[in-house]
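Please check this chain.
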Amino acid sequence: MAIELTASQRSVVDDRGGNLLVSAAAGSGKTRVLVERLMGYVEQGEDIDRFLVITFTNAAAAELRQRIAAGIHQRLALHPEDRHLRRNATLVYQAPICTIDAFCLDFLRQWGHLAGLDPDFRLCDEAQGEVLRRQALEEVLEGRYAAIGQDPAFAALVDDLAGERDDQTLEDVVLEMHRRVQAQADPVGWLMDRRRDFDLPPEAMPEDTPWGKLLLADAAGLAADWREQLESLLTRLGDDPLLSANYGPSLRGTIDGLEVLQSALEESWDRAAACFPIPFPRLGAKRGECDEALKAHAKALRDRCRKQLTDLAARFDVTAAQAMEDLRAVGPAMTALLEVTAQFDRAFVEQKRRRRLADFADLEHLTVRLLTGPDGQPTPLARDWGKQYVEIMVDEYQDTNGVQNAIFTALSNGRNLFFVGDVKQSIYRFRLADPTLFLDKYRSWPLREEAKEGEGRKILLSDNFRSRPEVLEGTNFIFRNIMTARAGELDYTPAEALRPGREFPPNPDCRVELACVDLEGLTDHPERGKTPKDLVVARAAARRIRRLLDTGRRGDGAPLRPEDIVILLRSPGPVLRHYAAALDELSIPWSAEGGREFFGTTEISVAISLLQIVDNPVQDVPLLSVLRSPLFQFTPDRLAQLRGMGGGGTVYDAVSAGAGREEEDCVQFLALLAELRELAAQESSHRLLWQIYDRTDLPAVFAALPDGRRRRANLMALYDEACRFEVGGHRGLMAFLLHLTRMADSGVAVPVAGEEAGGVRILSIHKSKGLEFPVVLLCGLERQFNEADTKATILFHPELGLGPKRTDRSRMLRYTTLARDAVALRLRRQLRAEEMRLLYVAMTRAEEKLILFAAVNGPGTSLEGLAARAQCPPPPQQVAQARSMAEWVLLPALCRPDSAPLWGGLSVPRPVQTADPGPAWDMSLLRGADYEEPAGQGARNSSPAAELELPGDIEARLAWRYPYEGAVDVPSKLTATQLKGRERDREVAQDGVELRPAPPEVRLRRPVFEGRRPLTAAQRGTALHMVMQYIDYGRTGSEAAIREEIARLVAGQYLTPQQGQAVDPRAILTFFQSGLGQRLLASQERQRERKFSMLVPARDYYPQAGLGETVLLQGVVDCWFRETDGTVTVVDFKTDRVTEDTVGERAESYRPQLEAYTRALAVAAGLPVRRRVLWFFALDRAVEL
């Protein structure tokens, strides 16, 4: 069947010369080309089931299979007698067109036994995997802790990473590193190999390490960029004698300094460090007329250069010797971390093996193990298995990783790999995708026309058949200015640029729009503060949509519908409510995926509560949830009546009592519950859930409520999850409920089928990939990039390894290392590149109209500041240092000739305008103040409601405020802990209310038995306090006597053996030999652990409290004693980690606590406290307050 293809598409279909990489730009018809290539093979006599076709998702595999089948049937319609086509029309449904996970699963069903996999293995779901992960890690860490005395490297790791109260940080680091290392073909091998990173020769210098090389190269690039920019500026200043005289010598001095730095960076770390600070000589002071715009530009450029070079100088504050010392110091701990992670991997695999389970990562790694040998070469099994494939075709190759690539390579004969994708749309690095696999081939493989026979080659498809030229040229304009190898991992050259693949009739309404919403001047309302900036932008977007719907037309001339429009956001979750509200204000229908947390929705809560009471009805909270739901509609008054007549007991008892009185609602409810409980004993979970849906009309009831379609979809998703749970081999209602609890606790998402709900769609950029819409509004461009990955406790990079900080316990400092700086730099670059590709994906979703919204003059986005830096193109380092997509769009956009609306009111001069801006844009600067109120709501007097006659006291009634509002936040109890505290005060208070109570974080953990783990700092402090509380003062004269006292306390079970070992007798002896200790021993009247409780005026601690309000103050005084002059001294023991530099500030923070103790002793016991003393065991000295 003849299908018209472009020349580039035809070359992809016909090429058979070797491995082929197809770089297919957005909208270039890559799926169509892939299908046509397969059809070409079929027409040449090959069978469709001899091709392995790997796609990214199951949905994509199903769609591709359907299109291939359609292609075969189209050809069969023309040649109905062709037996080969008829056979392939059947074979297409058996062909391996699937995801990589499905391929590995099928492969291991046949060959997994060779890798030790149980033939009857089951897939491990995410929730169960999380539980096994935690169990395996607990097992590994407990074994390590048990032998910590013989493992100084692990002890160093614990010391570096353990928190003040537990080892959660260590656990989190191990789990995260294990997750990331799964992208390696041999995770354990990778971990073991990285141990050599910190095995540094004595003579090694920073420039000999991969980290130092990267940092030096980055500094050299920055120096070269600034040298080039300053030389260009110097040339421009030559046309202005005054500016040349004033700026020229200073700029030349800086350029010379940069030249020296560049040479030094090629030699060594210390030579480079000696070049800082880079000279910035004083500017000349000659007066006269000059080009003011050029002067402002020169000053701004020079200031930016100085700031960036000052920041660079901080990198070289540490000498080469110090940098290497830091690396060697962290080496043992990092080696232990790598070994612990590898040990955890083996333990986790064993946990799954015992249960005959395998997760998706196991499928890939076991497949690689069977297909590749220790040398990385294909095994005999790989060569035999690979012979069945004429070609291995991988769609969306930019989203694969090293494990998957190893599988493709092992199965290939060296020249039958077909990769298709677009690295500019690689946006799944967070899922461990590795775009460098695509980039390496893209850079090294020659074009098809230049490749030799059998050599890997590439073909570029740049013709876009989806979008209007205005959209394509708008996208090209942005990306040819910002995307470079340094700032985006790829140079956006004419070869990468999008080209229109079809013609469109001219339409001035299809211009790209850039709307900047000015947040300056928003009203700060006394009661509600400023309108959220996201709501302001959302209202601006909603009003633009309203105008589009009122007057807009599609390309075919039909009126624009809400379903033709999409709002794309980087992360809709935090701002979805604002966009929903803005659209609702204008009665614009909308839909959004993932708008609410699945387990937090009312319908899912009711369904799960129903399952819970079917399992066990004597549960008050789930039962109340069900009774109060729309299913049964027991009102609060009715429930109160039942409880009042039930004579106590549970809610179930109260309902049963109501049924005993033959009250109809109770009788009907218990009858239904009895039926469901009987079914639960017979039916599987998914059948039981369906029976619940059927007998209660649960989906129909919630479908009738607002947002009903989504509610029903959520309930169907819960049913699908029950089916998946049982397909995995699990049984029983209680097991299913436990499974749901694990999913909710672990944050595992339940997939909800996309609805065909009408209205404007609100999507994340990630979810929009592969979709297209007539009109796209890309909003939230001002959102700051998330750099959490560069601030983790320990950074991780697949090539550079680990990036730790060094911990100096003696000085209580943590500071960066050469490795951390380098890994952070690389991660930051990759983050920027991924964000840039997200912007590309978002802009290329539009078919006819692209509208960009960015808030300016808010946090981090000053239009004046951006205008001062506007260049076309901006320097790569400026692009790389951008903090939001708005900067990438605005820096070049401000240089366009049609950007005049954005320059109104700006004081900086406009830059040189770009020579080739492409089709015109419509730009506007919108006043944020115009969007503070919903559309149509202006001043109060303009509303018709203002003319209504209202009751005279209505305003006073509506303005009424609770007269004791200030007392609402005042607790009934206050502990000295809350002033600056300790555990003992909390124990006395028991249920005391915190000053600012925070939501509790509940974490169920396996019990830790004594001796298993080293004590945390807080636990060691508690042990020392216990000794000071119970030690015999008569046996404190020597270190030996104190040791005996500690042994006595251990024997008496006042302390555990581990606590006893943690207490330093020398520190206690030092206290008792001090002047303070001697006065305590000599005193005839003293007391330890004096507890107190007393009422005090609440206003003493809560200024907003009313007169006469009191609060119960509670606490425990460590020790007080009477001096020889009759006065009393209060002593409080502190185990804080302090230094001589920090002890004063720390002691001052305890002043309110000791003042509370003084007050308590004076009021409760009439003791005249004269001295308040803190004893810091870390410094062996007292501080008197």
